[in-house]
Thioredoxin-like protein 4B isoform X3 (Mustela putorius furo), 138 residues
Amino acid sequence: MSFLLPKLTSKKEVDQAIQSTAEKVLVLRFGRDEDPVCLQLDDILSKTSSDLSKMAAIYLVDVDRTPVYTHYFDISYIPSTVFFFNGQHMKVDYGNSQPGLSGHTHLWRQQTGTGARTPPASPRKCGLWTGFQCRTAG
């Protein structure tokens, strides 16, 4: 379903989307078109895009074609979703109960029931994903 959502394929296009999207939330999904988890998220985003069209603009960004933004936003897991409002990057609170814990650290602690502050080196190894990403642990 990723073919239904507009794609940004260069830094210039991403810059233009950030600068020109006003009075709406800009949703940038960073990932790869052929990745199965990205395709799952793209399906969800495409199904909701018409309902959200008055309040959000959703774009797909290929991590391999926009390495500047991939590095700038520290995209290390795909898919990753970045939000803007009126050109300003929005930091999203995923309900962490303790300050200083990242989203996947909090989810990892919740699902494993451990008191450890540090998750495994890779959330993929324990089957956890952050944000809108799939969580398959269990």
Notes: Residues 36-52 form the longest helix (17 residues). The helical segments are 11-20, 36-52, 67-72, 103-112. The beta strands are 7-8, 25-31, 56-62, 80-85, 88-90.
